[in-house]
Amino acid sequence: MSITRRILLAAATLVLPARLAAAETVVKWLHIEANPAQVKIWEEVARDFEAKTPGVKIEMSFLENEAYKAKAPTLLQSKERPHIIYSWAGGVLKAQVEAGVLEDITTAVGDYKSNLSAAAVAAFTLDGKLYGLPHTVSQVGFMYNKDLFAKAGVDGGKIATWDDLLDAVRKLKSANVTPIVVGGADKWPLHFYWTHLAVRIGGKAGFQAALAGKDGGFESPAYQRSGELFKQLVDLQPFQTGFLGFKNPQAVGYFGDGKAAMILAISSFYHTQRALAADKAGIPDDKIGWFNFPAVPGGKGEASDTLGGMNGWLVTKGAPKEAVAFIKHFISADVQKRLAAGNYLIPTYQGAEAGLGSPFMRNIAHNIAVSKYHQNFYDQDLGPNVGRVVNDATAELAGGTMTPKQVAKAVQDAFVQGN
């Protein structure tokens, strides 16, 4: 063989892998899941999709919750933006659509959406166009440590009203038990109190009236009352020392370590309290309890009304068509049943919730099913600018630097400015 022919053959062997690499479609998937056990399953699902779809690679990357929120606007305007991103829907989704960074996937999804919860799909639909698919729903309520409750003589099953909660806090403090842990540095965990009180006091009609600017909007008596009741709790000093310096993962781990009796939690904390506990075991099922956010006597909201998320995945502008195919695979019956069996989520695929293995998660699924009003998180539903003010102002109220009236005014001013 001539030297020239050897050189040409060698060159060909070098070019071939490059061509194969160029032909490979890479789908960049950005998530915020901190639980390694759940991420392991997600990785397996991605590898399974790759095996069934030759020439496609799913490239997973992670950003911590707060870092994701902070970086998302800039990231989505970048040429290097991921193809699939995490979403809480609501006003933040609307802002992203208006910024022109999301792909309309209505046609690509087609009838597949009929397999999913209609209410959850609606959360990802704007002006008749679908921009993502929901993979889970969640509820906010009080997760508690049964042993610490018993130490203080508190029965979690009997906490039904706001006054019941305040009484439980007093008893826990008297027993030298930290009543509630909260990640105050992230602010959004504190907004759950003000928001959920508004759900109880004003109900769905109260929120819709505020959106319409009626009765003072977010300065209405219902929202001012929400602040006043939250201040009642704050004045009892229920939170751990230095709560405004705690990030949420730190607070969830603190609860998992058995250092506080309660946490106003998203239902997914059922797993993350274990993953973030020092011993990676956390509080076992037989020692962990849940009660719904207390009712407010005289409030217009129903005791069964829920606050929580409808979380899913969005497809960004210019993403390869395989991005939608992967989301459909990820939210398929088999995958949703597998995640439900591990009690990682309340699935959106119809019927998959039957596979939930733990009484705790089955209870959450029941609560959401019977709820006639499921309110999305305010800091997402009201959009990034108003949501930021809600979080900031409620954290200021918890820290004693704003009054209930000032909080309501700040939120209303931000809402008017943004609308």
Write up what this structure looks like.
- The relative contact order is 0.17.
- Helix content is about 50%, strand content about 15%.
- The strands form five sheets. The chain has a four-stranded antiparallel β-sheet.
- The model is unreliable at about 1-25 (pLDDT under 50).
- With about 425 residues, the protein is an alpha+beta fold.
- The longest helix is centred in the middle third of the chain and has 24 residues, at about 190-210.
Task: Give the secondary structure arrangement, pairings included.
Layout: H1 3-23, E1 25-31, H2 36-52, E2 56-62, H3 65-77, E3 84-87, H4 90-98, H5 106-109, H6 118-123, E4 125-126, E5 129-130, E6 132-137, E7 140-145, H7 146-151, H8 162-174, H9 188-211, H10 221-235, H11 248-256, E8 262-266, H12 269-275, E9 288-291, E10 306-308, E11 310-315, H13 322-330, H14 333-341, E12 346-347, H15 359-370, E13 374-376, H16 378-381, H17 383-399, H18 404-418
Parallel strand pairs: 1-2, 10-13
Antiparallel strand pairs: 3-11, 4-5, 6-11, 6-12, 7-8, 7-9
Helix pairs in contact: 9-10, 9-17, 10-17, 10-18, 11-12, 17-18
